[in-house]
Amino acid sequence: MEDCNVVGYDIRKGTRVFVNAWSIGRDPLLWEQPQEFCPNRFIGSNINVKGTDFELLPFGAGRRMCPGYNLGLKMIQLSLANLLHGFNWKLPDNTKAEDLSMEEAFGMITPRKFPLVAVMEPRLPHHLYKF
Ligand code: HEM
């Protein structure tokens, strides 16, 4: 909306700025072993995803932040909880957890580079799986 200066960089009015949240999420100055898939790093951490902790921005931040973040989080938690409640999960017999590749394919979004193959078995009474 107006000329401004952000951490020493002059930015002209009207400039379109893309924030590289992917790169921030892998910055070794901000994260220990940033290339490691390690969800445990968040246990006991005060960092949240609501746009105030700039090192973790899955929903963006500020006035254009995702307005659906609350629904998004609830849908993911509900879906995951249902899958874990309804099924026992394991890897195929020929796959070890430590060999599982967590590599990502580059693009607008970052899907897995290699699809996850998992074996699921119902763990609840049979009639609960009928629609
Ligand atoms: C886990 C699920 C979701 C993720 C990771 C996500 C992520 C994002 C991100 C990164 C942005 C861009 C924010 C920015 O420009 O700084 C965005 C924008 C937006 N999201 Fe989501 N989102 C999710 C779910 C949803 C849901 C469930 C809705 C609606 C029901 C929604 C509606 C929108 C809308 C309308 C915008 C544009 C906001 C604007 O430009 O002013 N999102 N989202």
From TrEMBL:
Its cofactor is heme. Pfam families: p450. This is Cytochrome P450. It comes from Hibiscus sabdariffa (roselle). The lineage of its organism: Eukaryota, Viridiplantae, Streptophyta, Embryophyta, Tracheophyta. Keywords: Heme, Iron, Metal-binding, Monooxygenase, Oxidoreductase. InterPro entries: Cyt_P450, Cyt_P450_CS, Cyt_P450_E_grp-I, Cyt_P450_sf. Belongs to the cytochrome P450 family. It comes from the Eukaryota.
